[in-house]
Write a structure and sequence with these properties.
The protein is of the alpha+beta class. It is built from 4 helices and 4 strands, in the order H-H-H-H-E-E-E-E. Strand 1 and strand 2 form a beta hairpin. It comes from Microbispora triticiradicis. InterPro entries: PepSY.
Length: 118
């Protein structure tokens, strides 16, 4: 699991715990309230699944593309279908070359990479 995904999951779990009114913290100190602890845990699990089902964001796709082409600047980033995958198409420019990096929204992997000399 990538560091960014781990941070997103931790943030979602924290938000779910806060939305539950802090019952996860209260139930940790009072063992008689086991059902509240279970509901907080299920809320955190639901939040994690919501984060993972939404996939990689535009910002995350840009970071992945810039790792592939260091020193390039982003021209455009948009959603597209590529090779049967819902992807982010990130267009970059470095010097006289243009790059198109297609990042899978579901997995964060580069599906396609193209270079054009302008």
């Amino acid at each position: 699991m990538s560091k960014t995904t781990s941070i997103a999951i931790a943030a979602a779990a924290t938000i779910a715990a806060l939305a539950a009114g802090g019952t996860a913290v209260a139930s940790a100190s009072a063992p008689a309230q086991a059902p509240a602890q279970t509901s907080a845990a299920s809320s955190a699990a639901t939040a994690r699944s919501a984060v993972s089902s939404s996939g990689f964001t535009r910002r995350q796709a840009i970071v992945i593309a810039k790792r592939r082409v260091p020193g390039a600047r982003v021209i455009k980033a948009e959603r597209e279908w590529e090779h049967g995958h819902r992807t982010w198409k990130v267009e970059l420019r470095r010097g006289h070359r243009e790059y198109r990096v297609y990042v899978s929204i579901a997995t964060g992997r580069i599906v396609k990479f193209r270079t054009h000399h302008s």
